[in-house]
Design a protein that fits this description.
With 401 residues, the chain is an alpha+beta fold. It is built from 13 helices and eight strands. The strands form two sheets. A four-stranded mixed beta sheet has the order 1-4-5-8. The chain has a four-stranded antiparallel beta sheet with strand order 2-3-7-6, with no helix packed on it. A hairpin with a 2-residue loop joins strand 2 and strand 3. Helix 10 packs antiparallel against helix 13. The chain is globular, with a radius of gyration of 22 Å. It starts with 6 loop residues before the first helix and ends with a helix. The structure holds flavin-adenine dinucleotide. The site of flavin-adenine dinucleotide (FAD) has 18 residues, from strand 1 and helix 13. The site of flavin-adenine dinucleotide has 18 residues, from strand 1 and helix 13.
Amino acid sequence: MDISFGPELESFRAEVAAFLDCAPTPDIREAGRKTTSVFAPFESVMAWQKILHAKGWVAPGWPAQYGGTGWSVEQRYIFAEEYFKRDLPPLLPNGLQMVGPLLIDLGSEEQKAKYLPGILSGEDYWTQGYSEPNAGSDLAALSCAAVADGDDYIINGQKIWTTLAHKANRMFMLVRTSTEGKKQQGITFLLLDRTDYPGMEIRPIIGLDGIPEQCEVFFDNVRVPQTARVGAENDGWSVAKALLRHERGGSAGSPAMYRKLELIRVTAQGTPSPFGGMVADDPVFQRDIGELEADIASHAAFEKLVISGHPLSHDPAMPSMNKVMSSELAQRVSVLMTRVAGTEALPLQLEALNIGSNVAALGQELELVAMPYYLNSRATTIYAGTNEVQRDLIARTLPAA
Ligand SMILES: Cc1cc2nc3c(=O)[nH]c(=O)nc-3n(C[C@H](O)[C@H](O)[C@H](O)COP(=O)(O)OP(=O)(O)OC[C@H]3O[C@@H](n4cnc5c(N)ncnc54)[C@H](O)[C@@H]3O)c2cc1C
């Protein structure tokens, strides 16, 4: 059976490949090879975003009228395949996959005109201010408060786990504007034009992998205009949920996982096994990589369904299913990676991981990234809503027995 793409799509693939072969600078390629989380090294990936934007290829999932490519599902998938084959850094998600699509759906015309161009071009980077020390899974318990004052709101409180807040120049956030009624009813969604307002303080948190990726953000009488609101006051919960659907369901992760499997396979072929021969000859390794590949293939089919807009993709359980499957597969890939890298992966080589570093890495490329990737992947089943909570959401969509 021939399941290859037809000649038109193969010529599209050749066009994509030709561009991706020559457009990224050496720094951008290095950033891709040294990406150990969903968040690629910031400066390099934002420089890459500007190049893709100039080509018109920065937002394959957006409607063409707002700057999307107008590509078919197959074209989007081919683009992702060629992209990750070359180890290019994944674009940062908060603008392109989260607040951008949200504004297209629910923003006012003024908000679209003001914010979408900067999201596409990479001039702006947005951080997500949802979680608080006492509001994670129970997000509606949030207490960071905004009080109306003339045409403004005055914000007081704290956010936590705010990814890349120290690099972002804009923030979307949830605030409490009422304590009346159900807790979901008193929440408002705001867009902050700056992350350096007087009274706003950002403190990075060093992660398990030694890299400061998340932050705490403190608000002490921070004044923002009420025009910053998306939707009505106290109706931010429905806006927040709409954005979470984009966060949990918006991208194709399987091409990147396939690429990691390929790196694992190549490394296994050159790594001696303690049981004799090479790791690649070990039947347990062969079973594990085979099972993983089959599960990634099944996830790839699921992702194609999601990005196709097929009626099933509108099922309320889809974003949660996508989140659970992709995060657990990423963890399994990271475990296999550390197994193949073995003891060589034990030291965290933070200096060698810097882009342009003159500190040579110990061991092969996979051994440099395996441990930070493994450690960072522990968080995949926590962020964007924990997998326990996602399973609960999936169960609730099932018809009662
Ligand atoms: C790396 C990383 C990046 C993040 N980035 C951001 C960000 O950019 N912006 C942002 O706002 N937030 C961010 N978060 C926060 C993330 O959304 C929360 O950590 C997550 O929602 C869980 O909340 P919590 O940490 O308060 O844990 P808790 O809610 O306290 O949960 C603790 C444990 O209890 C379980 N649990 C809780 N409630 C239930 C339930 N009802 N049923 C079953 N089990 C339950 C959880 O599954 C978990 O295992 C990030 C987190 C991480 C780790």
